[in-house]
Amino acid sequence: MTERVAIIDLGSNSARLIVMHIYETGAYNLVYNQKETVRLSEGMNATFFLQPEAISRALSTLKTFAHMCQLFQVDKIIGVATAAVRNAKNGSEFIALVQKETNISLEIISGEREAELGYIGVMNTIDLTDGLLFDLGGGSTELTLIHNRKIKKAVSLPFGAVTLTERFNLQNKVSDAKLAELHTFILTELYKLSWLKRSFAPLIGIGGTARNIAKMDQKCKNYPFSKVHNYRLGPMSFDELWKIICKTTLAQRKKLPGLSSERADIIVAGVAIVKCLLDVTQASQLIISGCGVREGLFLQYYQAKLHQDPVIADILQHSTYNMLLAYEGDVHHAYHVTTLAESIFDGWREEMDLRLADKKLLRVAALLHDIGITINYYDHPRHSSYLVENARLFGLTHREQMIAAVIAGWHNGPSLKYYRNRIYSEFLDERDWHTARKLSLLLAIAEILDTTQIGLVKKVKAAIANGKAYLKLFVSEPVPIELHGLEKCSKWVKKDLGLDLLVEEQNL
To answer: In tens digits, what is the pLDDT along the chain, a chain of 508 residues?
Structure first.
């Protein structure tokens, strides 16, 4: 049974709505996303009461969300409210008002629960074992220390980009004295957490500040890919951004490439928190996550329906399979081609100068090589390539996803069009192109071995010896169509590997 699930995250600065569609196959996909700036925590510092204007903005936004849920025929709404509401003395009254005015039930979640949801969202979408996760919102900052993919420590700090901006008056240009005062406050709070000091683990950021850091750095570097999730930068690159932001007025910040004008007045406070975290932890890398509490809420709900742990064991396998189902791919054919391709990879890898890590790229491309058929059968490899390039595949770096896209696009033969594409030409170096070409050859051979798509070639054993590339096919009956295809492919093998292709059949 299909289902549409809406997730609402009402934060101190922003309110966000996503709608996820769960298909009969079990696949799921994001079908709607909306983000509105509400500044719910504005004016709370002095009284700890949500202010009338902020309440009005939030209610207006939530009414819009409720309307969109009706239009999208949502079956279930899961809504949470975070720091602003949980810290407000009139938080419960506000939740009751929301229920009355919009018929949306919001749960006020604790800082620890918010940290847990962020952890679920990140661990299911970024391939990491250890790290320090920070979820930097408008009114709080959640810190989660991760070791061996498990939560070791978690804490919610009662300050964020909005509250610090108001407390230290950081909206416009900030003096050196004010910056020093801000740093002293943040560092004092961080040094109370002994487990933060010199942890050296990667720093993983959730929230609008983190995403804007990525976008600004991408603009500075003319990064050819607009994807923010799993974007990575080093401390030196971050420091360059920090220096620029600190020297600018509000009007100047609004014009900074990559920085949202809506966030320009609170970015100094947000980036200061990240700066202090980098200084205290001495992290070697800053990783940006586009996924957080909302994805954590959905995946916790989805995995519970399957009676499975909310943290997925193999996120690359899970997201690839989800995409295969979402695009109605032939699952049996896709997995059979993948198995054959991996067998050839194992037999030829060393002589082809391929790395063990390349196998996962081949696997992704093999599983998804035919999904472009849903657009148009003719030239479907190109369509498959585009879909792989832009898919929500988790567990690959941006570069790896590009290579997988090229492999999928070349499974009927290499094409120069990828070299001419700016994104690919700026992303991939010479070795990447060679790797993609070699792996696409293996995929092409595996595809040919299941031309009839009924699995006549049960398995294959591959070897390279004496200047020849050997394939031993284990078959249940004669495979003339597959053998004819291999004759054509032998020219590719000769051209790229300089080897003659020899094929032997063995009946099972």
So the answer is: 799 999 999 999 999 999 999 999 999 999 999 999 999 999 888 889 999 999 999 999 999 999 999 999 999 999 999 999 999 999 999 999 999 999 999 999 999 999 999 999 999 999 999 999 999 999 999 999 999 999 999 999 999 999 999 999 999 999 999 999 999 999 999 999 999 987 778 999 999 999 999 999 999 999 988 899 999 999 999 999 999 999 999 999 999 999 999 999 999 999 999 999 999 999 999 999 999 999 999 999 999 999 999 999 999 999 999 999 999 999 999 999 999 999 999 999 999 999 999 999 999 999 999 999 999 999 899 999 999 999 999 999 999 999 999 999 999 888 777 666 777 888 899 999 999 999 999 999 999 999 999 999 999 999 999 989 999 999 989 999 999 999 989 999 999 999 999 999 999 8
**Locus of tokens 């990447």:** 432
Q: Which residues contact 389 (CB under 8 A, 6 or more apart)?
A: 401, 402, 405, 423
Cβ-contact 209, 160 below 8 angstroms: no
Q: Which residue type does 38 have?
A: V
* pTM for the predicted model, two decimal places: 0.93
Q: How far is CA 432 from the centre of its chain?
A: 22
Identify whether the C-beta of residue 132 lies closer than 8 Å to the C-beta of residue 202: yes
What's the rounded Cα separation, in Å, for the pair 305 and 301?
A: 6
Please tell me the distance from the alpha carbon of residue 190 to that of residue 195, in angstroms, as a whole number: 10
C-alpha–C-alpha distance, residues 26 and 452, integer Å: 27
CA distance 297 to 239: 33
Closest alpha carbon to 453 in 301, 303, 333: 333
Tokens coding 233: 């930068």
> How far apart, in whole angstroms, are the C-alpha atoms of residue 20 and residue 110?
24
Residue 241: which residues within 8 A CB-CB, separation 6 or more?
A: 213, 216, 217, 220, 271
Delineate the domains of the chain, giving CATH numbers in brackets: 3-109 (3.30.420.40), 112-290 (3.30.420.150), 315-507 (1.10.3210.10)
Residue pair 428/436 in contact by the 8 Å Cβ criterion: yes
Minimal CA–CA distance to 313: which of 118, 124, 162? 124
